[in-house]
Design goal:
- The protein has one domain.
- The strands form two sheets. It has a three-stranded antiparallel beta sheet.
- The protein is 39% helix and 8% strand.
- It is built from ten helices and five strands.
- With 224 residues, it is mainly α.
- Helix 2 packs parallel to helix 7.
- The two termini are 22 Å apart.
Amino acid sequence: MIQMKAIDTFELSKLPRLDMQQLLRDLRRMGLQPLMEFRKPWNNEIIYQLYASYHLDTQVETHFIHWTTEGKHYKVDFITFSRLLGLDHRDRTSTAITNISVLAMDEYQYMYLDGHRADGKTIWLKPYYYVLNNIIHQILYPKIDDSTNLYEDSQVVLDCFGDEFTKFSISRYIWDKIFVASEDVVKHYPYAPFIMHIIEHVSSIHFPSDVPHKVLKLSNKTSL
């Protein structure tokens, strides 16, 4: 199970740099604040059961996720899934990240400090993008891999922020990534706190938790 941490947006707002204040405004504009502040301890076994029994039904106009918890079948449609994550119609109807083109590496140069070439790593990212990546690493693309590298679509996500802001669907992003994780032979399962909340809401059962949902410690430096 991939560990995820919540973000204290109040502590983030106290960071003195002007670009950190802009970052917080952009995170809110993207619709990420509810997920950043969301805290929910989870039960590993209950999350494993969802991933083990996961089935995506695309035969009807409204797609459903089906799963089994303690031998009982449950399902949730995409709109309900989105609402349970605190996301709205605007988010659901925004473009999917998969519809945004991947740029050549040198086109991401603007994210890097002067004197350092864009190389797909996080070390020389400008403070805005360095801190943003650390936050998104906890919320949208949690990974077990080396955090000094930008993986998969992380550069596309980062490129949606900043001066050329592009709103993309957060709920669609997480919905699709759950599907990808369910197919992962390595079984690195993300989004445990979000999934736990959805399971308990749909099943109307409160399960005992065995993993706390911690808060990421913030720093007044360029990193988190």
